């Protein structure tokens, strides 16, 4: 089953705020951006140059079923697109053992996008695992980052601040 991750009703109008948050109310609804209530933010987007950035909700919005089943594919919460950049974002609000699950969701989303799109026009591709309970940068082994990049073509960051450049 094909899915369009770029031309979809799940894509919000682009925004150029210097700072905004990405939220997931953890209620089965799709993720969204917000500029008014930073207590809801799981990831903070810093956009000092006020670049036009589009957020597209993926989980609970772009539904892809596993082949020959009605089971939903696991996917990350959303993506940011701007200029020649594609940033995938997985949002978590948990204390322990969250990184492997976040990585798996990001990897699976990348696989689904690759199956449905040619995104070679994106020069910068990053995958962010963000956790409200652990907002600071989490150190990953260089080998783990390299393995993720070799497998997906995306750089992996474990932190709750996403800087748009």
Description:
This protein is 18% helix and 28% strand. By secondary structure, it is an alpha/beta fold. The chain has one domain (19-163). The longest helix has 18 residues, at 99-116. The N and C termini lie far apart (34 Å).
Write a compact overview of the structure shown:
This protein has 165 residues and is α/β, with parallel strands linked by helices.
The overall pLDDT, averaged over residues, is 93
Query: How many domains, as an integer?
Result: 1
Low-confidence stretches: none
Order of helices and strands: EEEEEEHEHEE
Cα-to-Cα separation, first versus last residue: 34 Å
Structural class: alpha/beta
Instruction: Tell me the radius of gyration.
Output: 15 Å
Reported for the largest beta sheet, the result is: 5 strands, mixed
Helix content: 10-25%
Estimate the global geometry from the Cα principal axes. Answer: globular
List the total number of helices. 2
Topology (SSEs and partners):
Layout: E1 19-23, E2 32-34, E3 41-46, E4 54-57, E5 78-82, E6 85-92, H1 99-116, E7 124-131, H2 142-152, E8 155-158, E9 161-163
Parallel strand pairs: 3-9, 6-7, 7-8
Antiparallel strand pairs: 1-2, 1-3, 4-5, 5-6
């Amino acid at each position: 089953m094909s899915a369009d991750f770029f031309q979809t009703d799940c894509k919000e109008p682009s925004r150029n705020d210097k700072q905004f948050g990405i939220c997931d109310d953890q209620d089965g609804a799709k993720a969204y951006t917000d500029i008014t209530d930073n207590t809801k933010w799981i990831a903070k987007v810093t956009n000092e140059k006020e670049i036009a950035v589009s957020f597209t909700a993926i989980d609970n919005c772009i539904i892809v079923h596993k082949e020959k089943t009605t089971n939903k594919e696991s996917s990350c919460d959303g993506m940011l697109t701007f200029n020649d950049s594609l940033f995938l974002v997985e949002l978590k609000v948990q204390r322990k053992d969250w990184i492997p699950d976040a990585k798996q969701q990001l990897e699976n989303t990348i696989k689904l996008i690759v199956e449905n799109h040619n995104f070679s026009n994106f020069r910068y591709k990053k995958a962010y695992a963000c956790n409200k309970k652990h907002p600071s940068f989490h150190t990953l082994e260089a080998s783990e980052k390299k393995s993720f990049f070799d497998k997906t073509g995306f750089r992996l960051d474990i932190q709750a601040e996403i800087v748009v450049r």
